[in-house]
Amino acid sequence: MMRPLRFAAPKLYEQLISVMEDFHMHPYDIDATASETDDKLHIQIRYGESYTNMETFRIDPDDAQCAGDQSKEFFQTVMKQCRKQWIADYYKMMKP
Q1: Residue 28 — φ and ψ, nearest 5°?
Q2: What angle, 0 to 180 degrees and rounded to 10, lies between the N-to-C axes of helices 69-94 and 10-22?
Q3: Ordered per-residue pLDDT tens for the chain, 96 residues
Q4: Burial class, 79, CB count within 10 angstroms (exposed 0-12 / middle 13-18 / buried 19+)
Q5: Which stretches of 1-96 are DSSP H helices?
């Protein structure tokens, strides 16, 4: 069952928010959820118009408690892609 990342892994959520602040983004710009399967925490981040784009990441639940460099790199990569998608959506919307 998918749960909001904020409740499933609070440390990862805090790290995600910190990375988002670096990119001048807000929590409502994405939909971050997590579920525990096969002894791994499966994280999904949706973004873009109608949240149609999705990136996934799997991490050991014990590693999720410390929010290390691996998760930070994933969040930074997703935020870069999210920003590119925003720019593309903006120009598509503004096109006459």
Answers
A1: -80, 0
A2: 50
A3: 899 999 999 999 999 999 999 999 999 989 999 998 888 999 999 998 889 999 999 988 888 787 788 889 999 999 999 999 988 888 888 887
A4: buried
A5: 5-8, 10-22, 61-64, 69-94
